[in-house]
Design goal:
Elements lengths: L1 E6 L9 E7 L6 H10 L4 H9 L9 E6 L3 E6 L2 E6 L1 H6 L6 H12 L3 E6 L4 E8 L4 H12 L3 E5 L4 H11 L3 E3 L4 H13 L3 E6 L5 H6 L2 E5 L4 H6 L2 E3 L6 H34 L4 H4 L5 H20 L6
Parallel strand pairs: 1-8, 1-10, 8-9, 10-11, 11-12
Antiparallel strand pairs: 2-7, 3-4, 4-5, 5-6, 6-7
Helix pairs in contact: 1-2, 4-6, 10-12
């Protein structure tokens, strides 16, 4: 039984852009504060927010903290600010206006990632970020499914966004609002059901699940920790490289078996003849030079068979 788990990123173009933003009235300097906090983050979604606004003068940010799987927080002008998902706001008892919730739900249904910006009391802005799905990613998922591999999608985005992405890509198994440790637990659950699990990821949030999986694949444009943990790194963001890598792995194993089989047969026949097994029967003795050439030919045939992998796709 085989299963294949991925998180949302690789199915997208990797160029997230802010498409919509709604502000709570009465917070004129909130944009500059949001921009300053996101400027300190290395997350692709933070970069999208930074690029959305015109360059601003950065405000001094103190105590910046990246909160795994949820977002970030920082202190500015003696006040705590938060940027992240809704769970982050819920944990800090931050209120959200009804009209902002309605906008967020509508944007989530349109397969957009939702980011919240808040102070210690209330949400000040809701931001929608979208990234177009690559046609090659949809093709890659179809190829995996056609080869008998079950594809699962795990994402930190909410369930509505996860569902919209899954419908567009043809993924039937998906789960939204997943934290890093929950990804690893999901992989472990699949393994307990008898599946051999391959996990694809490119971020810090995926590293625990990558370590848990039977086969871990990091996308080359991801974080260093993901590539350190993974057993395989694909130097590309193209998901079609994954079914290609699987096919190449299977062809390599087949080639190894072929080489072992023919080497075994070759030696079963050749060694007794070289040792003179035919001499009592017909007086035939193998010339040592011919025996040496035959042994060299055996090595050449094995190497030549292996080199055929260069032309396989």
């Amino acid at each position: 039984m085989r299963s294949f788990s991925t998180r949302r990123g690789p199915s997208l173009k990797g160029k997230p852009l802010v498409t919509d933003i709604a502000w709570l009235d009465g917070h004129e300097n909130a944009k500059q504060i949001l921009w300053s906090i996101e400027k300190h983050s290395e997350h692709p979604l933070a970069e999208a927010v930074v690029n959305y606004f015109d360059a601003m003068s950065i405000i001094t940010v103190e105590g910046f903290q990246s909160i795994t799987g949820k977002g970030a927080s920082a202190s500015i002008e003696g006040k705590r600010w938060f940027v992240g998902n809704r769970q982050l706001l819920t944990e800090h008892n931050i209120s959200i206006a009804e009209q902002m919730i309605n906008k967020a739900e509508a944007w989530s249904t349109a397969s957009k990632t939702i980011i919240w910006f808040a102070d210690e009391q209330q949400a000040l802005a809701v931001i929608a970020i979208a990234d177009k799905i690559k046609t090659t990613s949809i093709e890659a998922i179809q190829q995996l499914q056609q080869s008998g591999i079950s594809v699962h999608m795990l994402t930190g985005d909410n369930e509505a966004t996860a569902k919209a992405i899954a419908e567009q890509t043809g993924i039937t198994h998906f789960k939204g609002g997943v934290l890093p440790q929950q990804k690893a637990e999901y992989v472990k659950q699949l393994q307990s059901e008898g599946y051999t699990v391959a996990m694809v990821g490119d971020g810090i949030n995926d590293s625990t699940a990558l370590a848990q999986a039977d086969v871990s694949i990091a996308m080359g444009k991801g974080s260093d920790i993901a590539m350190d943990v993974a057993k395989m790194t694909i130097i590309s963001s193209d998901l079609k490289k994954i079914p290609l890598a699987i096919r190449l792995s299977r062809q390599t194993v087949d080639t190894i078996r072929q080489n072992l089989f023919w080497a075994f047969i070759y030696n079963i026949i050749g060694i007794p003849i070289a040792a003179g097994i035919l001499y009592p029967i017909n007086g035939f003795l193998l010339n040592p030079m011919i025996a040496g050439a035959a042994m060299a030919l055996s090595s050449v045939s094995v190497v030549s068979n292996s080199l055929r992998l260069k032309w396989r796709k």
